[in-house]
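Quick one:
INPUT:
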């Protein structure tokens, strides 16, 4: 596995070795041994999958306190722009983000440690998105940031008029208005 560091400490792009021939391809989507060599020990407890159509933007979500989650994310089919925003108080990169195109073709994965808000926008006609979490979802510990927070200046690569949000994702606060208690 090729491990690519990003501009934000802890967020890593992982590129598996893909073996292809006339029949198709094969790769290990997760190997605990290789993952721990690259990232360290993380015990994943939940796998999630979503299917979305072009323009769907999910995020920017996070879990607070003892329910904070690290995630390993990837796309099975289609293409998304995956975004991780540093929300660790006191971090030198607080409010900065990493954006990576993930696709069923490039097989890239992103490891997002605890202390980040996460979201993605679907760039293809549809996309199947999978992620592993190291903590269970806890609704009362959920937080979120507005996808279009001007201070974050995220280029989602989907025109604003094409963005499709859940009702919940339409009303999140800006990062500057969050409290981390």
């Amino acid at each position: 596995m090729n491990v690519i560091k990003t501009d934000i400490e802890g967020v890593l792009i992982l590129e598996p070795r893909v073996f292809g021939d006339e029949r198709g391809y094969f790769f290990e989507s997760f190997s605990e041994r290789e993952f721990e060599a690259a990232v360290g020990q993380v015990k994943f407890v939940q796998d999630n999958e979503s299917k979305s159509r072009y323009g769907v933007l999910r995020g920017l979500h996070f879990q607070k306190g003892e329910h904070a989650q690290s995630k390993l994310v990837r796309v099975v089919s289609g293409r998304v722009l995956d975004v991780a925003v540093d929300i660790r108080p006191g971090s030198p990169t607080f409010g900065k983000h990493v954006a990576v195109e993930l696709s069923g073709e490039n097989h890239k994965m992103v490891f997002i440690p605890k202390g980040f808000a996460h979201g993605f926008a679907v760039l293809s006609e549809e996309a199947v998105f999978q992620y592993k979490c190291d903590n269970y979802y806890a609704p009362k510990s959920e937080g979120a940031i507005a996808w279009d927070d001007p201070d974050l200046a995220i280029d989602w690569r989907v025109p604003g008029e094409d963005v499709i949000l859940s009702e919940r994702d339409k009303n999140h606060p800006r990062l500057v208005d969050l409290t981390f208690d």
